[in-house]
Each structure stands twice: as structure tokens, then as C-alpha cells.
Amino acid sequence: MRAFAAILWKDLLVEWRGRDRLAAMGVFALLVVTVLFFAAPPGPLPSQREHLPGLLWVAVVFASVLGLNRSFALELENDALSALALAPVDRGWVFLGKAMASLVVLLVVQALTSLVFALFFDVDLASVAGRYALVAFLGALGLSSIGTLFAAMAVRTSYREVMLPLLLLPLLLPVVLGAVRATAGLLDGEGLLFEPLQLLLVSDGVYLIISFLGFEYVLDE
Amino acid sequence: MSDGAGEPAIRARALEKRFGPVTALHPLDLDVAPGATLAVLGPNGAGKSTLLRMLAGLARPTSGELRVAGDGDGRAARRRRVGLIGHATFLVPALTARENLRFAARLHGLADAEARAEHWLAELDLEGAADRRSGTFSRGMAQRLSIARALITEPALLLLDEPFTGLDPDAAERLASRLADADRRSGATTLLVTHDLARAAQLADQALVLARGRSHGLDEACLADATVLTGAYHDAVSALQGPRG
Amino acid sequence: MGLLIASYAIVVGAVAGYALHLIRERAALLRQLETASARGDAGPTQHGG
Amino acid sequence: MSDATLPSQTSLAGTSSLLQRTTGALCLLLAAVWAIAVVQAPVDRVQGIVQKILYVHPPCAFAAYLGFAMTAFYGALYLWKGDERHDQRARAAAGVGVLFATLLLLTGPLWAKGTWGKWWSWDLRLTLTLLLYLVYVSYLLLRSFTEGSERAARFAAVYGIAGLMVIPLNYFAIDLAGGRSIHPENLERGSLGAGMSLPFWLGVAVAIVAYVHLWLRRTEVEHLRGLLAAREATMAHRDDPGGASWDS
Lengths: 221, 245, 49, 248
Prior knowledge:
The structure holds 4 protein chains of 4 kinds. Chain A is mainly α. In chain A, 79% of the residues lie in helices and 0% in strands.
């Protein structure tokens, strides 16, 4: 348990000291939203705005992939990854430390992306801010859990930048779809729909279990 | 270096490691007395770091038995009593020396991380740079910090993976004296993997030669001095590799 | 009708083709193993105990 | 160096193992009976002759899903036991599984074109298969991009298991996204007309036996490759002692 706190503290401290990396992710998300705006400008009619939640989460997913790749790239310096492997603790805790640190980073980037998205696309997130925050949290939790597991693998393959999205994206459908449908429900004034929320919760649970158990084998030499 | 008759610190019986059909380490028997320093010598690819990684609990033996005194259940328990110093320093550049040591201690689940960090900063006379980020350290200072990082958890088994590579002679000399001094004080059983036969003769009580996964123990007489050791080493290597097997 | 024929042709063709490919590859590997061990015979094929 | 004798599976140097030959013969026999049954099956009044793709398209799904289940199964066995043979079986299962998934994704649109006039539809089953296909292509890519056979095997095993566990999630996700199924009929017996179930289930049997046959052969090829790689590693090592270092 102490190891979990140590890793979480270390990662957040390193993140804070390397704020430029966090800024880079923020700007990246900003760029993605801008490009999406020109690629698929929203029309006045509601039917022309159905795709907006999808666009928002596309921006979030890509910014997250960037962040996750970097979180383990740091561990390669001075072979810190082996230091983690040497920690005399169940590696599930090492996973949780890294995943929660990534979660915090993803939430910060997600907040920024959502803010800019709401402004650009004239979307009223403010009125549903509380419930949207819950959906955003569940989405980020899924992303950071399975993302941390695959980042730990991808960082030690020979084609690192491509490998993480390659591994992550095909498995992200449940979380992303759940988040998009939930967000759409909020924006259409239907409130927090049960099915998408249920899908998000179940998916996060499955991802956390797979990653917690799988990390033991991924961290080995 | 106590070589009490008691239960050996490291006991290996027919220890073997295979990567698929390739045998990295042939069946090896080994006994190392508590507190003793064993030098593991041999050319590249002989299986030295395979043996080291199995001792560190990072890799599982394919067959045979490997016991380190005080072995609890599972590899995590083994990793609690192991300290590893290698070419990689395991340091986090963005953290200061003090934070690196505290992190290492907490990673091992030690409660008094702050006190230990202060102690080992003094031990390796790094107080001056305690609050400087380790990313700005010279190679010598980084090496000292990585020694402190390994010893802060008071390992019963200290594994040194070619610590002298890339060091100029006097830096190597300083490191050798620090290691001997830290080893004597901590009483840890030490395993020194190196090519540097002079250092091996200077620091080790026992020696083992590995070549292409096969092992051959040298008796203590060989460790009298570097020249004797070099002779014994080359005989052992050619015996193990064999002209045509 | 053409679509029907095409789909059956694709499936049967792919399965049969892959089986033949694997048989050929197996034969090639066995040959390489033999030459390797033949070449190895000049020296010891293995350093076995 | 363990004795690199020929693999135990191959009884004689030339001929393949008994198991491989029996599954091969069984597959051919079943295929013949299946072909006859397909030809004799009644032509569907609504869709016409193209409906007979029913006897080849869904059977590939059985084989593909069997493949991915075995990939995860042998992957888990490898993680637990560490025996390299399990890893070879997992890799073979994925390879053959992807082959059948490809056939599924080829025959699907042919059928769709034949009955509704458009090649692709985001229908529940097709989307699920496409997703699964992407997962297992990533599985094979992960293996080829990871150095160190032991590490590649471990990573692939974890990813194979994750891939399998996400299938039910994908099913609900697509269902939630209104993946109204325009698949003409579902697989339950009820939907098969008179005289259609025999060719259908024969088709499934042929697909599964073909899968097992290809899987056995592919496993043996993986095993032979391992032996060859090991042989070359020792050769290279003897010629240049300081060279190939596998415990880098």
C-alpha cells in the first residue's frame, strides 16, 4: 500500500515539475478540437449536432494516448522501469499507482478539452457540469487503467509510438461508446441515461481487473 | 568477511535457466557464506546476468533450486532483501537526491524513509547536493546516489552488475573502496559480476567463472592477487568453452 | 449466382491454400534443421552434458 | 543444450503426425458430404440462390471465435506454466483465427450485396467481427514488434486474454448503439427452413475440423521455427563466443 502511495506521489511530483509536458498535451487537445471544428462544423439544426459528443471524445482519446505514452517513456530513463519491477510488492499496486497518476493527468486534459469544446461548438456543458464530470471521470478511469497496462507493454516494443494506439483503440469501444452516449443524453436534456452509465461502469470494472492482474506479467523482464 | 559454517546465504542446486530451446544457464551448484563476496566472472553472454536476475527475483529458474537465506513465499518476498547496483542508476532525474532516496525507501514499504534518507545522504557524503535534482548530477555523484539507493533498504543480498564499467581508474578505485566499506558495515552477502579481474581479486572471497552457461568454481587461492586470478580465469574459460567442445 | 460461387471459392481456396502453404513450410523447415544438424556434426551438434 | 531431436509430433521424418492426417481426412470427407448437402438444399424463395452463402459465411464465424478463445486459453496456460509449447499453440490459434475472420469479412459483404444491394452494413454481427479482427491483427503485430521471444509471448498472452474479455463488452456496446440487426436471420435453429439445417451444421463441422487441422499444422511450424532459431543461436554463439548474448 505504501508503494502505491510512493509511486502516485512520485508520478504526480514529476508531472508537476514537468508542467511543460502537461501544457503540450493541453495544446494538442486544443488543436484536435480546432481541426474537428473545421472538419465537421455543427449546423443550427439539432440533427446537425448529433455528432458533437463523438467529436469531443475523439479529442479526449487522442490526447490521452499522447499522455499515456509519455508516462512510461519517463520510466525508461535510467531503467526506472526495472526499479519498479524490483519493488518487493504485488505489482497490482504498482499498476494502481501509475494508473491513478495517469488518471489525474487525463482529467486535467479532459477538463481543458471540454472547456474549449463547449466554447467552440457552443455546447452548454455548464448546465450539466456535475453529471458530465461523472461521465468524464468514468471515461478517463477506463482509459487510464487499460491504457497504463498497454503503455507498459508498448514502451518496450521497437515501435513504441504506434504500438500503444494499435493495442488500445480496438479495445476502447465499450468505454468510448458508453461515454459518448451518456454525454449525448446529457446534451439532449435526457439526463443521465442508465444503459450508457451501466456500460461505462461494467467496462471500467473489467479493465481494472484485467490490468491489475496482467501487470504482474507485463512488468517482468 | 565472516565465513561461518552456518547455513549458506545463497544455496543453488542444479539451478538451470532456459529461454525456449536455448539454455542460458546449465545446471549450477553454488554455496555462498553469509556476508561473503562472490565474484562472478566470464565473457559476455555467459549467463552472468541471467544468474543475477534470478537471484534478484526478476526471473524464475526453469529448474533446480535457488534459496537465499530468509526466503519467504514468492518472488516479492525475495525482492525485499535484495539491493541491485548496475550500470543503470534507477534514479528519477526530476527528483532531488533526498526525494530519490525517500522514494526508494517507500517503494520498499519502509516507514522511516525520511530518517534513512538523511542517514545515507551523510554516508555517501551527498548532503551538499541533497536538494539538487539528480538529473544534474555528475556520473560519480549519480553512482554514489545509486549506491545509497541500493543500501537504504539494508539488503541482505547486494548484487553488483558490472559497476566498474565505463569508470576511469581512480573513479573505479574510489568506488571499490566505497563498496568494500559499505559491504563490511552492512555485512550483506555480495555478488559482484565483473570483467575487472583486479577489482575481483581485491574485493572477493570466492570466485565463479561462467562461460556459455557453464560454471566452474575457483578456489580461494586464486584470489591471492590479480595475476594469479587472471591465469586461473583463462584456464577455466577455455576449459568451459572447449576448443571444439 | 456469381456472388455465391465467389464466396465458396474464396473460403475453400483460402483454407486449402493455407494448408498447402503450411505443409510446404514444414518440409522446408525440416530440411533446414537437417542441414543445420549436418553442418553441426562437423562440430558437436550440441554441448549436451 | 537440450538435445535438439526432431519434434516428437512427427513420427517419421517425412510424414506429418497421425493427428494431423486424421483431421485432414475427416475434413475432406465432411466437406464432400457438405458440398452435396448444399447443392441439394432448397433454394430460398425470398433471397434466391445467393442465400446459400448461409452455409459458408456463419460457419467461418464458429471457427474464428473458436480460434480467439483458444488464443486466450493457451495464453493463460503459458502465463501459468511458462511452457513455450503453450505459447506456440496460442500463436497458431491466433494466426488461423485471423484467417477465418478474414474469410468472414470477405463473404459477409458478398452476401450483403446479394440480398440488400450494399456491400457493408454496421450490423451487430459484422461490426463485432470487424472489431475482433482488429484486436487480433494488433495481437500479431504486438508479437512481431516485441524483441525477446519470452517477453513477446508474455505480452501477447495478456493481450489475447484482454481481447477475449472485451468481446461481451463490445456486444453490449454495439447493441446499445442501436446496432439493429438486419442480418436476415439469426443462428438459432428456429430460423433455418426445412432442409437447411443439415448443410448448415455440416458447414460448421467442416469449418471447425478445418480450423483444428490448420491449427495443428501451424503449431508444428511454430515449434520447428523455435528449434531452428535455437540451433542458429548456438551455432552463432560457438563461432563467435562473445557474440549472440541472449541474456543481454
